[in-house]
TrEMBL record:
It is a lipid-anchor. InterPro entries: MdtP/NodT-like, OMP_efflux. PROSITE patterns: PROKAR_LIPOPROTEIN. One of its GO terms (cellular component) is plasma membrane. It comes from Sphingobium ummariense RL-3. Belongs to the outer membrane factor (OMF) (TC 1.B.17) family. This is RND transporter. SUPFAM superfamilies: Outer membrane efflux proteins (OEP). The keyword NADP does not apply. Residues 221-248 form a coiled coil. One of its GO terms (molecular function) is efflux transmembrane transporter activity. It is found in: Cell membrane. Keywords: Coiled coil, Lipoprotein, Membrane, Palmitate, Signal, Transmembrane, Transmembrane beta strand. Residues 1-23 form the signal peptide.
Length: 465
């Protein structure tokens, strides 16, 4: 009974143990009331309608939906991030909040001969069998919180790894969507160039007929030939860019580029409206911010682990079982038990190693705290950049659309004047080149506008709301 009371007292003492970790308080970062660049740019879509997870469905493209699904299932990048998360989760003792006893089963079977002249012997040698079976328990009393803080740190590391996985998943989703719309932008460029080559070809045929009739000069024919071949050369350049982009999508979705293809398709490059939400929500949505905060928490807990090394380690032992040289091993007379050994270990001199470990732990925390603040500031910068890009690209798109329309009308008028003999072909070439440039610039800015929406989603940590 005395042993049981002692064990209970020590257990209560362990439960009442203190923690050496400093009180955890994340560094404060001033959060604005609203995003500066959002002023004057409002989203038409209410936050309640924004998808919480499959944000790319806002674009309403079934093929993009399918590519995102393939990427989630087969991307090697995402698989590697998932494996890292599984490693961190396996290393964290999820089911415990503090120290737990270590229990070992112990068994032994031997045949021994002992000397008859051994101390206390009878003068006759003896040979006998020795069988034992039992269990041993070791329990470290966590008086200073070393084990509890280690558990907290491991769990926080696992949570940080989970946030890393979410960040990798969001980055993959954004990369697939970005590459897909770059591909569709190139499809639009290719279609524009095909129409342009057809129009330039007709203009070239016109100059050849006029030259054969003695109306146009050879210079006009060469000018028409130049713009025609330049347009054809651009078709090849766009085809090369498209092939590289298609191969990029194949890698993102975990497929071999040699067997992967996406059929060309011309479609309007329309960027859906996205709500930005409140700046305070950004800290909750961004997985990289969550990962930085959890690692900072883990570093704070490890300060407690390092400080606990200045105090003694107390361990309680308990063993019991059966031992016999013959007969029934499990008879009551063959049982044994023992309380102990109870041990206390305290390092007296280590040349400053423990002090240095505490200093290193504190420095690690300060580094991660600075990294956390930098991550938050970077997040706000990226959101402001994305909002500004969306607003300015909207204005640029409207102006570029007007410029393309005006350049198209100028090209038509110049060709008409040339047919009527009111101008030479230099005016036609200049107008045609300007029209093509303006139309290509319009497609480029429309593609940039869609990509800016994707960048905004990524900066916000997923769809707003």
């Amino acid at each position: 009974m005395a042993a049981e009371r002692a064990l209970a007292a020590l257990a209560m003492l362990a439960l009442a143990g203190c923690s050496m970790a400093p009180a955890y308080q994340p560094p404060s970062v001033a959060v604005p009331q609203g995003f500066k660049e959002a002023e004057g740019w409002t989203a038409a879509t209410p936050m309640d309608a924004a998808p919480r997870g499959e944000w790319w469905k806002l674009f309403g493209d079934p093929l993009l939906d399918d590519l995102e699904t393939q990427a989630a299932a087969a991307s090697p990048t995402l698989a590697a991030a998932l494996a890292r998360y599984d490693q961190a989760r396996a290393a964290a003792p999820h089911r415990t909040v503090g120290p737990v006893p270590q229990v070992d089963a112990v068994g032994d079977a031997s045949r021994q001969r002992v000397s008859g002249n051994r101390p206390g012997g009878t003068g006759r040698a003896s040979t006998y069998n020795d069988f034992s079976l039992g269990a041993a328990l070791d329990y470290e009393l966590d008086l200073w919180g070393r084990i509890r803080n280690s558990v907290k740190a491991a769990r926080a590391d696992a949570q940080a790894s989970e946030a890393d996985l979410a960040s990798a998943r969001l980055s993959l989703q954004a990369a697939v969507a970005d590459a897909y719309f770059r591909l569709r932008g190139l499809d639009a460029q290719a279609e524009l160039l095909r129409r342009t080559v057809d129009a330039f070809g007709k203009a070239y045929d016109l100059t050849v007929r006029r030259h054969d009739g003695g109306i146009a000069s050879g210079i006009d024919v060469n000018r028409a030939k130049t713009v025609l071949e330049n347009a054809r050369a651009q078709i090849s350049a766009v085809a090369n860019d498209r092939a590289a982009t298609e191969h990029e999508i194949a890698a993102l979705t975990g497929q071999v580029a040699s067997t992967f293809s996406i059929a060309p398709r011309t479609q309007p490059l329309v960027a859906p409206s996205l709500p930005t939400g409140a700046p305070s929500e950004l800290l909750q949505r961004r997985p990289d911010i969550a990962a930085a905060e959890r690692r900072m928490f883990a570093a704070n807990a490890r300060i407690g682990v390092a400080k606990a090394a200045f105090f003694p380690t107390l361990t309680l032992g308990l063993s019991g079982g059966y031992e016999a040289t013959r007969g029934d091993l499990f008879s009551a007379s063959n049982s044994f038990w023992g309380l102990g050994p109870a041990s206390a270990i305290l390092s007296i001199f280590d040349g400053g190693r423990r002090k240095a470990q505490v200093a290193m732990s504190r420095a690690d925390y300060e580094e991660l705290a600075a990294g956390y603040r930098d991550t938050v500031l970077t997040a706000f910068r990226q959101v402001e950049d994305a909002i500004a890009a969306n607003r300015h690209l909207a204005d640029q798109t409207a102006s570029q659309r007007n410029a393309a329309a005006a350049a198209g009308r100028t090209s038509d008028l110049a060709l008409t004047r040339y047919r009527d003999g009111a101008s030479d072909y230099l005016e036609v070439v200049t107008a045609q080149t300007d029209a093509l440039d303006a139309q290509q610039a319009l497609l480029a800015v429309e593609t940039q506008q869609v990509r800016a929406r994707i960048a905004l989603v990524r900066a916000l940590g997923g769809a707003a709301g």
